[in-house]
Amino acid sequence: MAKKNNNKPNHTKTKFKMPSFKLSSQQKLIFGSFLAILGIMLFVAFISFLFTGDADQSTITQLTNRNVKTQNWLSKAGVWLSNFFIERGFGVASFIFAGLFFLSGIYVLMNLSKAKLRKHWFWGILIVIWLSTLFGFFSNTFDLLGGTIGFEVNSYLQDYLGKTGTILLLLFGLITYLAIRFKVTFESIAALFKSAKSDFKEEFSKSNEDTIVPVDNNLSDEAEAFKTAFDLSTEKEAAKETTTISSTPEPKVDSTPLEVNPPVKSVEKSDLEMTVEVEEESIEMEVEEVPEELSETDNLSNKLVADFGQFDPTLELSQFKFPPLDLLKKYDSEGITINQEELEENKNRIVDTLKNYNIGIASIKATIGPTVTLYEIVPDAGIRISKIKNLEDDIALSLSALGIRIIAPIPGKGTIGIEVPNKNSTIVSMRSVIASKKFQSSDMQLPIALGKTISNETFVVDLAKMPHLLMAGATGQGKSVGLNAVLTSLLYKKHPAEVKFILVDPKKVELTLFNKIERHYLAKLPDSEDAIITDNTKVINTLNSLCIEMDNRYELLKNAMCRNIAEYNVKFKDRKLNPNDGHQYLPYIVLVVDEFADLIMTAGKEVETPIARLAQLARAIGIHLIIATQRPSVNVITGIIKANFPARIAFRVTSKIDSRTILDGSGADQLIGRGDMLYTQGNDLIRVQCAFVDTPEVEKITDYIGSQKAYPEAYMLPEFVGEESGTSLDIDIADRDKLFKEAAIVIVTAQQGSASLLQRKLKLGYNRAGRLIDQLEAAGIVGPFEGSKARQVLITDLTALDNHLENEI
Ligand SMILES: Nc1ncnc2c1ncn2[C@@H]1O[C@H](COP(=O)(O)OP(=O)(O)OP(=O)(O)O)[C@@H](O)[C@H]1O
């Protein structure tokens, strides 16, 4: 064995240089059928030549003459081919070429192993040479039997070896061929004789069969047939007979890499050339069948992708049509109209007010937005910024306008901004932002077209990057419209397979329209009837269920060695994750709570804890929260919630305190309402006019989606057993899962209390595996839940488990 290993690398090196031609399917069909037909033509021509060869003899020199008639069934081509192969070539042994060409065609057509085909050609050509030499021995002149080559080789050999020498050389060639090709050994020949003798004496006993040595799984079919005839020996007898023929290698032992039961015999330093030859063969196979350096899973997934293409999560609803733009309304007041007078007036007032306080202005520039115009001023040198900032109210008074905001300085610009509302604000329609290039061509994971900025640019953000959004604003300032804009954006961009919504609507009326798309886009608890949650107790269950979903997803990501949902889904699409191990395409889940204050007031900590947990951990696994509230007071938006919601939207609020709660600064109290909002993702405040989407528009969109083919049911969240229905520790022994014992054995044997282990070993879904873990916890077999770590196993071995379970009853 050691010898074999030593030899291998050298041969592999030389073999790697083999050129490999990759043909397309069409090319294979063409090339393969050409070879097969060429084989048939050769065969027909040769057969015909045997009968018509003499008659066509005279035509050979005149084949280019069209008028010359030939007898061969393939006419002149047949005459020429037969003359070339049989007469001038190898004689009747040339029939083997016909076979080889035909075989090559079949191999190419059926895409069989090229290594095997090379082997057939190698041995085929050797046989042709050997046969033609053998036949040439018996022919005196250029005879059909051996052809010119057979005759010439013979006369050459006979000049040096004489007739006897030539015959012996041919015999040696035959022995060598049999030994290498059919793994014939001296022992097997001896055994053949012995068995023949035994046969003769009718003493053949069953014991002989038992001792047949299985030589090799790697033999070719012909070799297999040959082997059965020879392999009737007993191991004992074979061992006794030590070989004296130096040319016979021991192929059983050292030539076959895939050997299952190597015989006990020691390896002899037999004919080196032969060892090399045989090893070359086996290495060829390896080179063919182990493509480059891909791992086993890559290999399999590449094959799956090649066979079936990438996994397409949208396949089940492949006919799904995204809502068309026409469903959204166009507004007359759209498009900014510059009122030059208003601009001039405002500019003068700003300049005058500042002059009253001795603040000179070097330059002023206006940027007109849909609802607000930004005047950027560069004050004279030496003016303190804080001085201008303090004049906010005075400027507002002089402009007699609501919603003036001073940004001093504008980050990154070196100017001071004064935002003044336009007298006639324009509506930013949902249609205009959805139709914008920025939204349409965005490659964000969860793109949301929120509206337009002060410089009239479409403002698109990625919810996946936020990763959670807090929305606040006094009543009637545009929160519900904002939420609808968020949901509409996602409906226009994401397939039902890619995103699911959990809608919590304590106001009971705001989100009801989305009921129509329940089986497309909504997720709900298994036992609940309505997908849109209006009952506060159900919210608690849903949030806890979402936490279970989060844990399950983390487990999946961990097993798949992915850092986030995007990587995981790419891997799943590439078929690198096996659905039998519980893997599945994971849609994003967006939880929308329309009135968070109401929830906190009624459920308090029970809601806050899971929300905070989700907000802290859920970003990587594709669960995103959007929470809206009318009352951005500190007891609603607590520190822990604020800390985990870096992205915030503030519509107009009534007090500076509220503004500070939501934005950590003032500003929201100076907005003008009706969708005027400030957006922050941790640092800068961006003033945006929220896109307006009316209820009839949302209705049209949900109708359009709802009328299409849907999934059989809404996306099911994991079951959560709430407090009121008993904790998991109260599980009755009689209610245990049928697989409880098996699960206990798996967990105790592996000493690892994880649901995913049960999923894998017992081939279960998440829910059932999760329930089993709960039951195991109730039975005292595993410890309590420990976050992302596996639970502790409290039973050390199977005997202890048996005792434990017996004592229970
Ligand atoms: N982006 C917008 N563009 C133009 N008008 C808007 C916009 N957003 C809201 N409005 C106007 O403000 C009204 C109230 O908006 P909305 O219902 O969203 O308020 P809300 O903050 O959800 O109030 P509540 O908290 O009472 O539900 C809308 O009917 C609409 O007329």
TrEMBL record:
Region feature Disordered, mapped onto this chain: 238-263
Pfam families associated with the record: FtsK_4TM, FtsK_alpha, FtsK_gamma, FtsK_SpoIIIE
GO cellular component: plasma membrane
GO biological process, one term: cell division
Main location as per UniProt: membrane
Family (UniProt): Belongs to the FtsK/SpoIIIE/SftA family.
Protein's UniProt name: Cell division protein FtsK
Origin species: Siansivirga zeaxanthinifaciens CC-SAMT-1
Lineage summary: Bacteria, Pseudomonadati, Bacteroidota, Flavobacteriia, Flavobacteriales
